[in-house]
Amino acid sequence: MKAIVVRAFGGPEALGIEEAELPSPGAGEALVAVSAAGVNFMDTGTRRGLTPGKSAPVVPGVEGAGTVLAVGPGVVDIRPGDRVAWYFAWGSYAEQLIAPADQLVPLPDDLSFEDGAGIMMQGLTASNLVFESHPVKPGDVALVHAASGGVGLLLTQMIKLLGGEVIARVSSEAKVALAREAGADHVLVGRGDEIGDKVLAITAGRGVDVVYDGTGAESFRTSLDLVDYHGTLALFGPLMEPLPPIDPFSIPKSIKITYPVVMHHVRNRDALLARSRQLFDWMRSGQLRLHVGQSYPLAAAADAHRDIESRRSTGKLLLKP
Q: Is 238 contained in some domain?
């Protein structure tokens, strides 16, 4: 089978396609044929050597969907032939992978493999943000940075499903329509540090109940100033621009600052199954729509990385082995 292998950390050119062999699945593992793999910004960190515990050679990618080919000893809740999706199993940039069986969730027959591979990581990230980091209530006003990205588009839809109002920020006019289609009530164009006055004008000077910010230093100070009393600034994204040091005594208005981790949202199998099922149910009912910005053949993984790092891409990027 073919896989993308990084033999020396570096730029997108480090992603080479090779023939590879996999062992039989061990205890608690499953062999899966990958039909689609999600491209996430964290994968660029793996390629560059920034992932703790990962040394070259390494097969990047952690998200995907496909069909179970075989299972190892002790696996009882999935069987060969099952359609599955996963949000975190190393080696997903490949035609096949060995995955921990407890990371695989059943993919409904009426959802495509592209749906499964595209919704897991970013959908669970957005779920964590709206249900746990700041549980969105009817009437809450949320500012969503990078609203045309994969997480941003899903966040916007979920906030609207929960009764909130969304102020979306995008980086260019070309991305406005996409944010509007996701349900944003207001769309602002510009850098994260340029939109503060506009947000205050929309909210009659009050600010917002929550800011969801995956951009980092560029927007941090503005985001901090825009959160209303006892509100939340939720930061996300594995490779945000580094933030300046924070003095806890300088945090205004008794707000909360949090960096939620998706693994904490689905820290056991019951939670993973329940949260995934919620995403799938929303998709099946048409309440949550996945926007795939582009799909690439496996051999073009380098192009996918160039596109996601350029920040010009929108929605979800997928690889098709």
A: yes
Global pTM reads 0.95
pLDDT, tens only, 201-242: 999 999 999 999 988 888 999 999 999 999 999 999 865 577
Whether the bond into 57 is cis, omega within 30 of 0:
yes
Residue 132 is assigned to a structural domain of this protein: no
Supply 75's token pair.
Answer: 């696996």
Residues 22, 98 contacting (CB under 8 angstroms):
yes
- CATH label of the domain that carries residue 77: 3.90.180.10
The per-residue pLDDT for range 300-314, each reduced to its tens digit, is: 999 999 999 987 788
Look up the domain containing 184 and give its range.
Answer: 138-259
Determine the Cα–Cα distance for residues 149 and 250; give it in Å rounded to an integer. Answer: 31
